[in-house]
Design brief:
Number of strands: 10
Bound molecules: adenosine-5'-diphosphate
Strand order of the largest sheet: 6-7-8-3-9-10
Mean pLDDT: 91
Number of helices: 8
InterPro entries: AAA+_ATPase, ABC_transporter-like_ATP-bd, ABC_transporter-like_CS, MacB-like_ATP-bd, P-loop_NTPase
Organism: Lysinibacillus pakistanensis
Keywords: ATP-binding, Nucleotide-binding, Transport
Distance between the termini: 29 Å
Pfam family, one: ABC_tran
GO molecular function: ATP binding
Low-confidence stretches: none
Strand content: 25-35%
Length: 226
């Protein structure tokens, strides 16, 4: 269980304080597929980054099972992030001088290394393993970053607009694969998206406006990708 309590994160905006997060609380069960929806600037990415330990809040807590991640020291926090979490960003952050397969292998240990070939098939990159990132289209690069995150076999997968660079057909293929893998491995997905149709396949939808959660919808029967 993941509990988020009273998160506040402010930025200075001229003479005013801008609340990117204004007392945000929620809880997430293991194995959930959580989608965070909301207009641009509503705090979605900030929430994702704080929950994953990438950014520190001004106040509030993020508690995984029984430890508060902002009570960890820097080394413990790094280990938590390395061992338990993976990130799919909008920008791909691929290493430019190593090929697709080596990029996917980045950050995996023995736990994750056997399934690389399966993942390459799953995200539709078979045949492109030996290309360098610049030899790929934007959509293909995004698929490499998705594969790299999955190869880590994380307990928590954080995604910020993971299908933003993909066409609709590829996007559905990837989401179908992501759900299949989630059913198999039972990891938790927390995803920021503008895409309302992704919300229909989520188990929980969190709607944000101006740094606050305005609605939480629990989907007892999430749809399949269609
Ligand atoms: P969303 O992901 O919903 O578009 P963000 O979490 O990126 O929203 O941003 C929430 C608010 O916080 C926005 O008003 C944004 O301009 C502001 N913000 C985010 N990061 C910073 C930053 N590093 N410095 C100043 N303001 C920021
Ligand atoms: P996607 O929908 O996967 O983003 P695109 O429509 O952008 O694909 O690209 C179509 C094809 O063009 C791809 O199969 C890719 O191999 C090729 N391609 C796109 N950009 C490049 C590039 N910079 N170098 C080599 N091939 C490219």
């Amino acid at each position: 269980m993941l509990r988020v309590e009273n998160l506040v994160k402010c930025y200075q905006n001229g003479n005013e304080l801008l609340y990117a997060l204004n007392s945000v609380s929620l809880s997430i069960e293991e194995g959930e597929f959580v989608v965070i929806l909301g207009p641009s600037g509503s705090g979605k990415s900030t929430l994702l980054n704080v929950i994953s330990g990438l950014e520190t809040p001004d106040s509030g807590s993020v508690i995984y099972d029984d430890y508060e991640i902002f009570g960890l020291n820097q080394k413990e926090l790094t280990m938590f992030r390395r061992d338990k979490t993976a990130f799919i960003f909008q920008a791909y952050h691929l290493l430019p001088f190593i090929n697709v397969e080596a990029n996917i292998r980045m950050g995996t240990d023995l736990k994750g290394s056997q399934n690389i070939s399966e993942i390459i098939d799953g995200v539709g990159l078979r045949g492109l393993e030996h290309r360098l990132p610049y030899e790929l289209s934007g959509g293909q690069q995004q698929r490499v970053s998705i594969a790299r995150a999955l190869a880590k076999k994380p307990d928590f997968l954080f995604c910020d607009e993971p299908t933003g660079a993909l066409d609709e057909v590829t996007s559905k293929q990837i989401l179908t694969y992501l759900k299949e893998l989630q059913n198999q491995l039972e990891f938790t997905i927390i995803m920021v998206t503008h895409n309302v149709s992704i919300a229909q396949i989520a188990s929980k939808v969190i709607k944000m406006t101006s740094g606050r959660i305005v609605e939480i919808i629990n989907n007892a029967h999430p749809r399949n990708v269609n």
